[in-house]
Automatic annotation (TrEMBL):
Entry GO terms, CC: plasma membrane
InterPro entries the UniProt entry points to: MMPL_dom (IPR004869), Mycobact_MmpL (IPR050545), SSD (IPR000731)
Organism: Saccharothrix texasensis
Transmembrane segments: 178-195, 202-223, 229-249, 270-298, 304-328, 368-387, 516-535, 542-568, 580-604, 625-647, 659-684
Superkingdom of this protein's organism: Bacteria
One Pfam family here: MMPL
Cellular compartment(s): Cell membrane
Name of the protein in its database record: RND superfamily putative drug exporter
Family (UniProt): Belongs to the resistance-nodulation-cell division (RND) (TC 2.A.6) family. MmpL subfamily.
SSD domain mapped to chain residues: 178-327
Length: 720
């Protein structure tokens, strides 16, 4: 692989204009496609074949439900008044009239319609259901703005709006995200000592993430993608794109300092650091694409979309980056080093002392203490995982109209009104069967109200609504779903289904719990095989994977402490506490595992390279650490900045996911890879690089470029 990548890098340098123009053409093409072919994204999560999803499909078929997106406009009368008083009723009628004439609205119900009133028992809260012609996810920003403007025109009444039609799709590129990119640029500038080179690194990464994210946007025109998918792809693509370019540029500068000419230095950088980039990228792709084995369509889409963005980032790193480096030449070095005699440049080899020399010296001298502190520290931070709660029922921001509307509905109609459960009956006399089970349903407990059954046109199906006493994201309501299914499992004369937002959340959680062991076994197993091929060792990959388990535990523990317990909530601009998104644990495993193995490969490969060249184990650890640690630190700080940029202004579940990724990167890079791994390798000594004889026949993935030294002359001549 090193030889192939050497030729690829050298060729990109020789034909740099063609390479740059091709990438710009691809970027322009995907931008055009995104503008002309993109479609709406979805904010709902469901799994085909699950009881809750099957019931929703049947209800749509048998009752004609579905169609346009809806919103609830909630009205509350002043203290001591009722919405049914003549004065307030007139205001309410005027509001309904205005709502029905809003852009895109097909109908707005009257809360005081005697045929179907939607007023609470105290008659101080009512709501109108506003239906749009556009489907869910297709309501425009102008239509949402018009709706919220209408709620502000009623004097004397409190009016708020909620519902699927009021939810704007999450966006990328806000001020907080820009701050994260600016911090990444500053880290690059300090690392390189050059703002121009830092800008070049960021620019090439932006090309890759632009193509990846725009490609995902194009896909929305052909399939139903989750609204978080483009954001996840952009966030990961930008982070790894910057890091992968950093590794290659850093190695290129080292090769120039050793006296190589520009073309040879570029080829060598791509053949060595590029090999590590390809291998590291492959581990990330394995982890993300492996989400497909879970069998959950929306999770598969998220994983594949993010994996394809990583593939683009790798291709950019090994083609576009060397092409641009060909234009910069020796200007990537500080001015005082550019004109120094070949091979006589300071910095070709790492210094014995310095900060990183002191760091690795302290870790290896106190290896037992360092190892214990790392394990116990991460273990302590992981403790909150034991109380982790998850759900798919996301609460709106605390200061939003949606949150205020849901609070009004909860106060007026009960906590469970915002998360009703629907029971569907199918049978020859479904309505009568449903009516006969009302008493059984009410016996489940935690139920505020059971509505009379509503039959379909031919009487073969009926549905009734169960209003829980507890809110939709509570454990009590989740338990109610399970209890109802058990009570209705043996109903004579009908087939029953329990659905609703909480029921969907329960079904998805069960599916994820069942899939997690399979996913872990597949991803960890494939990655272990890959790392054995890279390091020709059994224990080094095992140490890396065990360290990753500590990373996952600590990052999830910290996320639970902040987002569920409320610790340091102000630091992340948190509106309110609550359960984590059900997808968070499995996404964390997939994404962080790939990124953790990135750092494992970049750091330990330099140790392996030093050991391969004859250094004893402890000296190899010191040499490899001093060579790789500075760039790994810079890469981790950049990735942390990018992820952290999505936290303060993050929307919905992306805030907690971005926080978990950011804190996970810090734990993995600075505790696991720079303390735990070198301490463990120092304890193992020569045994760390042991490989059983029966495995020595496996092919070798040469990420250190050992083959390049043997065939350098031939490769340089062939490239020219």
């Amino acid at each position: 692989m090193a030889r192939l990548l050497y030729r690829l890098g050298f060729g990109a340098h020789r034909r740099r204009l063609v390479v740059v123009l091709l990438w710009l053409l691809v970027l322009g093409g995907t931008a055009f496609g995104a503008v002309t072919l993109s479609g709406p994204t979805s904010g709902s999560f469901s799994i085909p074949g699950q009881e809750s999803t099957t019931a929703l499909d049947k209800i749509s078929d048998e009752f004609g439900a579905g169609g346009g997106a809806t919103a609830r406009v909630v009205v509350q009368a002043p203290d001591g008044q009722q919405v049914t008083s003549p004065e307030n009723a007139a205001k309410l009628a005027g509001l309904v009239q205005e709502l029905s004439t809003l852009p895109g609205v097909t109908s707005a119900t009257n809360p005081l319609d005697p045929r179907a009133p939607t007023v609470n028992a105290d008659q101080d809260v009512a709501y109108s259901t506003v239906t749009y012609e556009a489907a869910v996810g297709e309501v425009t920003e102008a239509q949402r703005t018009a709706l919220f403007d209408a709620t502000r025109h009623v004097s004397g009444l409190t009016v708020e709006a909620t519902g699927e039609a009021t939810q704007a799709p999450p966006h990328v590129g806000g001020p907080a995200e820009v701050i994260g990119v600016v911090i990444a640029l500053l880290v690059l500038a300090v690392t390189y000592g050059s703002l121009v080179l830092a800008g070049m690194n960021l620019l090439t990464a932006s090309v890759g993430v632009g193509i990846g994210a725009l490609g995902v946007t194009i896909a929305t025109g052909f399939m139903d993608l989750q609204s978080t998918t483009p954001i996840l792809a952009a966030m990961l693509g930008l982070a790894v794109g910057i890091d992968y370019a950093l590794f290659i540029i850093n190695r290129y500068r080292q090769e120039l300092r050793r006296g190589r000419d520009v073309g040879d230095a570029i080829g060598t950088a791509v053949g060595t650091a590029g090999s590590a980039v390809v291998t590291a990228g492959l581990t990330v792709v394995i982890a993300l694409a492996g989400l497909a084995v879970v069998g959950i369509p929306f999770l598969t889409q998220m994983g594949v979309a993010a994996a394809l963005t990583i593939v683009v980032a790798v291709l950019v790193a090994v083609t576009l980056v060397p092409a641009v480096l060909g234009y910069l030449g020796r200007r990537v070095l500080p001015r005082k080093e550019r004109d120094a005699p070949a091979g006589d440049v300071v910095g070709a080899e790492p210094r014995e002392g310095g900060f990183f020399g002191g760091w690795i010296g302290a870790v290896t001298r106190n290896r037992v203490v360092a190892l214990l502190l790392a394990v116990l520290g991460l273990g302590a931070i992981a403790v909150p995982v034991l109380s982790m709660e998850t759900t798919l029922v996301a609460a709106p921001p605390a200061d939003s109209s949606q949150a205020r509307a849901e609070r009004l509905l909860a106060d007026g109609f009960g906590e469970g009104f915002n998360g009703p459960l629907v029971v569907l009956f199918e049978g020859d006399d479904a309505a009568a069967t449903a009516a006969s089970t009302v008493e059984t349903i009410q016996g489940a407990g935690d139920i505020a109200l059971v509505t009379p059954p509503v039959p379909n046109a031919d009487g073969t199906a009926a549905m009734l609504t169960v209003i829980p006493q507890s809110g939709p994201a509570t454990q009590a309501t989740e338990q109610l779903v399970t209890d109802l299914r058990e009570r209705l499992a043996d109903v004579d004369g009908a087939t029953t289904y329990v659905t609703g937002a909480t029921a969907v959340s329960v079904d998805v959680a069960v599916a994820l719990d069942e899939a997690m062991p399979i996913y872990l076994a597949l991803v960890v197993g494939l990655a272990l095989v890959l790392l054995v091929l890279v390091f020709r060792s059994i224990l080094v990959p095992l140490v890396g994977v065990l360290g990753f388990l500590l990373t996952i535990g600590a990052s999830l523990g910290a996320t639970v402490a902040v987002f569920q317990w409320g610790w340091l909530a102000d630091a992340v601009n948190l509106d309110g506490t609550g359960p984590l998104l059900s997808l968070t644990p499995i996404l964390m495993v997939g994404i962080l595992f790939g990124l953790a193995m990135d750092y494992q490969i970049f750091l330990v490969s330099r140790m392996h390279e030093a050991h391969h060249h004859g250094k004893p184990p402890l000296a190899a650890i010191h040499t490899g650490f001093r060579q790789a640690a500075p760039v790994v630190v810079a890469a981790a700080l950049i990735m942390f900045s990018v992820f952290a940029g999505f936290v303060p202004a993050g929307e919905g579940p992306m805030k907690s996911i971005a926080f978990a990724l950011a804190i996970g990167i810090l734990f993995d890079a600075f505790v696991v890879r720079m303390v735990l791994v070198p301490a463990a390798l120092a304890l193992l000594g020569e045994k760390a690089w042991w490989l059983p004889k029966w495995l020595r026949r496996l092919p070798t993935l040469d990420v250190e470029g050992a083959a390049l030294e043997e065939d350098r002359g031939e490769l340089v001549d062939a490239g020219r």
